[in-house]
Amino acid sequence: MDNENTAVLLLSHGSSLSYAKKVFTEICDKFINKTGLDSEVGYMKVSNPTVSQAVHILNNRNPNLDHIIAVPVFLADGIHTTIDIPIMLGKEPLNADPRLKNPNSKIDYLENLEEINFNGQIDLIRPIGPNPKLIDIINNRVESSLSESKLPNNTNTGVLLICHGSRLKYNEEFISNLHIQYAKQSKYISNFGFMELVEPDIPTSANNLIEKGINRLVVVPVFIAPGIHTKIDIKTILGLIHEEDHDKKVQKKSNNNTSSQNISIGQIILEKDSDHEHKYDETLEFDGEILYSNPIGADDILIDILDEMVQNALVNID
């Protein structure tokens, strides 16, 4: 297959915060510089360009374009990668939708989708998965966080990997596998937890480490880009943002997004929108130091992973 007429569509969820789009723009630029392949980011919702708009942009840049490799820049499979994105690309979903009580109903953002006007071939590949190279990124995030610690180097330290969670099994399998890899080579005791939908939740996982006598907790959000979850929700659960601040920030988001509504936090109930509700029965009580790292971002190692994924796809298609 002629790579000159092949392009890459990098698929992202989209965020109401500007941080995420900035990160994905950087990811796209780095990817183009590394591979030489024309590429564009397409967002599922909230941000632009949409998936169909991104395909249109790629086709406009190269009227001879006949092949697009669609790459979900997601860490694990889930509802978005197995149901939503295939539908947006005009393909059959890979799973039944667990969100639908009525099989004849539709998710709001999947209604009235813009038609993709492209006569070539679109190949959708799988997300990143528990790639061993991600461990290098996690190690870098942990060491960077520890460099800002106010406690002695020999302080009992635990590392908590936080993942989003999914109604499907893939997300749990991803972080479980990744944590096993991390734990085998790390000198710190560690655990993992989910922000929603799957147990163990963040307070439960953190308290498990605290019970083992740690005085310092390094939290690594295993997310690609910063957004509402990493900037607000997770920090609120950890007590790094006061509940009143969370309410104000979610209210600000709600004013810009009619699908969201603000909910006062009781014990720990965070934002609720058409898809999500974050509720925890257990609270986190910790007198030690909490260090909160950046997510993966446009790390060069991530670009290497995406490059390998696309090169493997090209070989298999050829």
Any chance you could write out the topology, listing elements then pairs?
Layout: E1 6-12, H1 18-35, E2 38-43, H2 51-61, E3 67-72, H3 79-88, E4 121-124, H4 133-146, E5 157-163, H5 170-185, E6 189-194, H6 202-210, E7 216-221, H7 228-237, H8 243-255, E8 260-261, E9 269-273, E10 277-279, E11 289-292, H9 300-317
Parallel strand pairs: 1-2, 1-3, 3-4, 5-6, 5-7, 7-11
Antiparallel strand pairs: 8-9, 9-10
Helix pairs in contact: 1-9, 7-8
The gist of it:
37% of the residues lie in helices and 18% in strands.
Tell me what the structure shows.
The longest helix is centred in the N-terminal third of the chain and has 18 residues, at 18-35. The strands form three sheets. The protein has a four-stranded parallel sheet with strand order 2-1-3-4, with helices on both faces. A four-stranded parallel sheet has the order 6-5-7-11, sandwiched between helices. Mean pLDDT is 87; it is low at 246-276. It has helices spanning 18-35, 51-61, 79-88, 133-146, 170-185, 202-210, 228-237, 243-255, 300-317; strands at residues 6-12, 38-43, 67-72, 121-124, 157-163, 189-194, 216-221, 260-261, 269-273, 277-279, 289-292. The protein has two domains: 3-75 and 78-125 and 299-317, Rossmann fold (3-Layer(aba) Sandwich); 133-292, 3-Layer(aba) Sandwich (Rossmann fold). It is an alpha/beta fold and 318 residues long.
